[in-house]
TrEMBL record:
<keyword id="KW-0540">Nuclease</keyword>
<dbReference type="InterPro" id="IPR043128">
    <property type="entry name" value="Rev_trsase/Diguanyl_cyclase"/>
</dbReference>
<dbReference type="InterPro" id="IPR050951">
    <property type="entry name" value="Retrovirus_Pol_polyprotein"/>
</dbReference>
<keyword id="KW-0255">Endonuclease</keyword>
<dbReference type="GO" id="GO:0016787">
    <property type="term" value="F:hydrolase activity"/>
</dbReference>
<keyword id="KW-0378">Hydrolase</keyword>
<dbReference type="InterPro" id="IPR041373">
    <property type="entry name" value="RT_RNaseH"/>
</dbReference>
<protein>
    <submittedName>
        <fullName>Uncharacterized protein</fullName>
    </submittedName>
</protein>
<dbReference type="Pfam" id="PF17917">
    <property type="entry name" value="RT_RNaseH"/>
</dbReference>
<dbReference type="GO" id="GO:0004519">
    <property type="term" value="F:endonuclease activity"/>
</dbReference>
<keyword id="KW-0695">RNA-directed DNA polymerase</keyword>
<keyword id="KW-0548">Nucleotidyltransferase</keyword>
<keyword id="KW-0808">Transferase</keyword>
<dbReference type="GO" id="GO:0003964">
    <property type="term" value="F:RNA-directed DNA polymerase activity"/>
</dbReference>
<dbReference type="InterPro" id="IPR043502">
    <property type="entry name" value="DNA/RNA_pol_sf"/>
</dbReference>
Amino acid sequence: MASFQVQPPEKFTFKPEDWLKWSRRFERFRMASGLEKESEESQVNTLIYSMGSEADEIVQSLSIAEGDQKKYDVVKKKLEDFFITKRNVIFERAKFNLRSQQEGETVDVFITDLFNLAEHCNFGVLREELIRDRIVVGIREWNNGLGELEGEYEIKLKELPEPFALNVPRKVPFPMLDKTKKEIERMLKIGVISKVDQPTVWCAPMVVTPKQNGEVRICVDLTKLNKSVLREAYPLPSVDFTLGKLSKSKALGHVISSEGVSPDSDKVKAILDIPVPTNVAEVDLSWKCLISVPILALYDPNKETKINADASSYGIGGVVLQKQENNEWKPVSYISRALTDTESRYSQIEKECLAFTWACERSSDYILGKSFSGETDHKPLVPLLTTHTLDQIPPRIQRFRMRLMRFNLEKMTHVPGKQMYTSDALSRLLKPFTKPDCCTVPEDDMNAFVETVINSLPVSDKKLKEIIEAQEEDEVCKKVKQYCLEGWPDKHMVPDAVKSYWRERGELTVVQSLIMKGTRILIPSCMRLNVLDKIHEGHLGITKCRERAKQS
C-alpha cells in the first residue's frame, strides 16, 4: 500500500480564541500520522514543537510536576487551562441569545457563528433545538420591496442612432392624477426611477394604466428607443428543455433523481382530491395507477419516441413516451387542456385529431427534427393522417394534417382505448378552459380555413342553404349528425337506416351545420334524385358523371 507523510498543522497563533480550533487539528494529525501509537514523551515533544517557539517558555511557566511532564494528557490539559479562561455560562448564553443576522451577512455565516457560540453555552441535548429557535428569531426579515442587482447594465446602441425626445407628454386623467403622483414618489423612493433636472435628447412617453385593485401601474413606451438598441438575443430555456439536457446525469431536486423525474407528494394528493365522477367513463379509470407515484424518465434524443393522445367531450390529453433499455416505455411528459367552447362542438374524430396535433405541437421540443410514432384509440383517424390525400379528408382535419407536416411522423397506430388509460385520464380530469396556450390555433384562423374549403365547393350559396335545411329535416341525417358530434356507438347499436354510414364514420364530420364526408357533401334522401339529374346534365357519360359527383 502506498504511504504518504502527514504534515502537522500550521503554527499556533497563541491567541486564546484560536486554541480549540488548533488543538482539534492537532488531534486529527496525531491520529492520521500514527503519533498516538508512539511514546507519550514523543507525543509531548511533537505537540510543543508543532505549536511554535513560544511554547517552550509557556510550558516551563506552568509548573508541571517532573513526573507529569512526559504525560501527553496532563501537558495538554495544562495548556488548555492556560489558554482557555473559565467562561461565564450565563454571559455566553446571553451572547448567543442576542445574536442576530447582520446587514449584508449571509445565512451560512450567521448559522456557522451560532454553532460556534453554542460551544460554550453548555446546552446539552437541547443544543440543536436552541440553535434552530435562534435561527428563526434572528434571521433578518426579507425585504418585501423591490430588490436590486449589483452592477449596471450598459445598453448598446446602433451606429448613428436617432435620438427621440417626447415633445408633448401624454395626459393623465384627473381621477388617476393623485394616484399617479403617489406611485411616482414611491418609485423614486425605492430607486426605480431618478429625477432628471436638465434637457435630454432621449425621453420616452409615460403610460399610466389602472390596476384591478384600484391602484395605477406606470409603464414607459420604449418603442422609439428600441429601434436604436442592439438586441442581445438569448432564448430562455423552458423546464422541459432543461430536463431534456439532463439525460444520463445525476441531479437531485425538482424532484430529479438518477432514475428520472418523480412528482412530489402534493401532486399525488391532488389526484386523490379529484371531484366525484359525473359519468361512467370517469368511473372506469384505474385510480390505483394514478395514486401510485410514477417516475418520469429523462428525455434522451437517441431513444425511440412515441406520442399517444386522446380526447373526451370536454378535454384533450397526451403523453410523450420513450423506450428504455429494458424495452419498457416510460413517460417523459404529461400534457392536457380543456377544450374551448368552439372545439367542444367538433365531431369526435375532429377532437381526436385536434388532441394528437396539439400534443405534437406542445411537445415539439422533444420530437421536432427526429422521427416518432403516434397512437390513437380512434381507428378511423389513422388513414386520415397517413394514407389519405388532403383533398380526401374533412376541412378541419385538413388543417390539422397541414400543421403536422413539419413533424416526421413515421407511423400512426391504433391502440384500444382500454390500453390508453393515461391520456384518457388526462383528457377527462381537467379544470375549465381559461386562456389559450402557445399551441392553440385561434378560432378565427380555423374558421377562415374551413370557410375557404366550403367556398371552393362547386355549389351555390342558395343550394348549400337548401341542403343544410334538408339535412336538418331528414331523420337519418339528424342521427348521423348526433353520432358525429357525440361519438359513434358499436355497429350493433346503430339503427338499420344509419348502418350504411357506420363504415364511413371516420370521414364524416359536421362543418358549419353541414354534414360532410371528407370534402364532399352528404346529400339527404329527399334531394338525391334532383342531384342525380344535375350530375347527368349534358349527357357526359359514366366516367365524367362520376368525376362530377366526386367533386362535391
